[in-house]
Amino acid sequence: MKTKEKIIASEQKQLSKLQKVAAKGNYAGYFFVLLFLIALVNIIDEVTSNLSVSVQSSFVTEFFVNRPFLGKMYSFEEGLALHTSVSVISYVFGVITPFYKALADKWGRKPLFAISTFGMALGLFIIYFSPNYLVFLLGYGIIGFFYGHDIQIIYILEEAPDRSRGTIYSVLKSLGIFGVVCIPMLRDALMGNDASKWREIFLVPALMGVVAAVLVILFAKDTKVYLKERTAYLSIPYEERERQKLEAKEKKQAERNKSGVFNAVKYIFANKDTKSLIISHIIFDAGMPAIALYFESSMHTAGMSTSDITKALFILPIVYAVLVLFSGVIADTIGRKKTIIGASVLCVIGFTLFAVGINNLWNPYLIGGFCGLYQGCYWIGRDYMNIMMTEKVPTDIRASVVGAEGLLVIAGLAVGYILTIVGMLVLPVWLTCLIVAIPVVSVAAVILGLKVKETKGANLNQL
What angle do CA 315, 319, 320 make, to 5 degrees? Predict the structure, then answer.
């Protein structure tokens, strides 16, 4: 345990470093370099989060259907349910993820930006070299820990002008999603119609991740908001800060100058508005497994060929990216709430049409369009829930709140996983997903619309 003297020495060292960085300022063209880095990492983030799902039927078939696992052979549905059950163990990492993210409030945004980007690359490399399911699961768990770090979102929110924050976010996000076209391109070039070559598509994104991490280390800086707030906090004498915290505790006030996950959770539930938002978000996240994880397997079990699935996957990210591109302008114009509610309605419609389409073997490009519609709208809704939370909390605990939010929504994810696992054992994959997703998305949107206040135009420098 650190002594008072060690804490003071460490903080003074950090303060001196932050003051030097702030005094030096940004180099010419820095903002555009930062935008490029964020766009690049967004591409890697989006590709990483979609890569395993895009070859789900292939690795499930290899690890569970074509070879025994734990001494038993499985049908595809049983193997998929087992993979889902086992992979949920990787969410144990999710318990410590918020504490990791909260370090961004103490160490700064840049270190975690670089570490998380490299972490995604590491997970992809492990999957590429995986000889069996257990090694694959290790890589899968590492990816799950790092790809949702959201540090680049904090960069955007803290560096972008207040009035165009949503627009800049959506443009960068859409560029990242357009990058997901790399997945069907890799499938087409490296897999063709041979599903057994699924590992090959993991190498290129892994190499891109290493390059991106190095570029972040060399060219990114911490945000001006973080430098200002952290410098101001550390400039207050240690004894004075401790006295202020004690007084705040005695008066039952929020400890706004103390970062950390538990304080962030208390802050969220102490405020009626953020409490309603997190409840809505938890319910919304119960639909994530059904919406985000089984579209490729749904196509496979409906009878679509590997090449037709690849065709559908070409259209998915294009539709998704276009939706995200316009969502920022819409969110900055009509507000975050209406954007989330509208996206939820379109998600339900798109998911229904996708289910009808795969069961009637419609044109694969049309199926991909409906898949992009419901997935794009779902993630737009979820992203703007995250943005609303960041726009409601103070700078000095913002990263901690982002981490706490990620911890709390695990409750919704757990319910969603349980429902889909049980459902897949008795119902077709597509029907299970439809039954789980539509109610939770609808209920979450209603709660948010009725209980949560708008945050459009919030000034993050004054929070």
Answer: 115
Give residue 1's pLDDT: 52
Number of residues that this document lists for the chain: 463
Model pLDDT, residue 118: 93
Apex CA 208: angle with CA 129 and CA 63, to 5°? Answer: 25
Q: What are phi and psi of 119, to 5 degrees?
A: -60, -40
**Residues forming a β-bridge with 72:** 69
Model pLDDT, residue 2: 62
Q: SS3 for the chain, per residue?
A: CCCHHHHHHHHHHHHHHHHHHHHHCCCCCHHHHHHHHHHHHHHHHHHHHHHHHHCHHHHHHHHHHCCCECCECCCHHHHHHHHHHHHHHHHHHHHHHHHHHHHHHCCCHHHHHHHHHHHHHHHHHHHHCCCCHHHHHHHHHHHHHHCCCCHHHHHHHHHCCHHHHHHHHHHHHHHHHHHHHHHHHHHHHHHCCCHHHHHHHHHHHHHHHHHHHHHHHHHCCCCHHHHHHHHHHHHCCHHHHHHHHHHHHHCCCCCCCCCCHHHHHHHHHHCHHHHHHHHHHHHHHCCHHHHHCCHHHHHHHCCCCHHHHHHHHHHHHHHHHHHHHHHHHHHHHHCHHHHHHHHHHHHHHHHHHHHHHHHCCCCHHHHHHHHHHHHHHHHHHHHHHHHHHHCCCCHHHHHHHHHHHHHHCHHHHHHHHHHHHHHHCCCCHHHHHHHHHHHHHHHHHHHHHHHCCCCCCCCHHHC
* pLDDT value of position 254: 46
Cβ contact 214:117 at 8 Å: no
| Unique residue bearing structure tokens 């065709």 | 311
Residues lower than pLDDT 50 in the chain: 252, 254-257
> What integer pLDDT is reported at residue 10 of this predicted model?
77
> How far is the C-alpha of 144 from the C-alpha of 289, rounded, in Å?
13
pTM of the model: 0.70
